[in-house]
Amino acid sequence: MLDFLRNYLYWILWCGGILSLIIFYLCHKKRIRTFLLGSCTGLCVLFLLHFYGDRIGFSPTLNLTNLLTCGIFGIPGAGLLLLSQAFLS
User: Fold this and answer.
1) 76, 83 in Cβ contact below 8 A?
2) Which of 20, 44, 78, 89 is most exposed by smallest CB count within 10 Å?
3) In Å, how far are 28, 72, 84 from 36, measured between CA atoms?
4) Cα–Cα distance, 48 to 12 (Å, whole number)
């Protein structure tokens, strides 16, 4: 039962994060610039977590899934990766 609730909450957080980012990008006048800035900051956070994440106990690998997650969703994508690690481990 606890695994079901944990999985359910995990998917609710992912869907909520995706919807909030879509609304965020659609409300801006300069959508492309906002998206590119968010992508760059998300990738920077991913690289920092990869190289210095041992100090906080989370060091994600630099694979295609993580790069796309942080590249599309930015810093909230890195937060979603942290939540994924917390819920799935």
Assistant:
1) no
2) 89
3) 13, 9, 24
4) 27
Q: Select from 68, 83, 73, 78 the least CA-distant residue to 37.
A: 73
Residue 15, domain extent: 2-88
H/E stretch holding 40: helix 31-52
Write out pLDDT tens, residues 20-74: 878 887 888 888 888 888 889 999 999 999 999 888 888 888 999 889 889 888 8
Total tally of structural domains belonging to the chain: 1
**d(Cα 28, Cα 6) in Å, to the nearest integer?**
34
**C-alpha count within 13 angstroms, C-beta hemisphere, residue 8:** 5
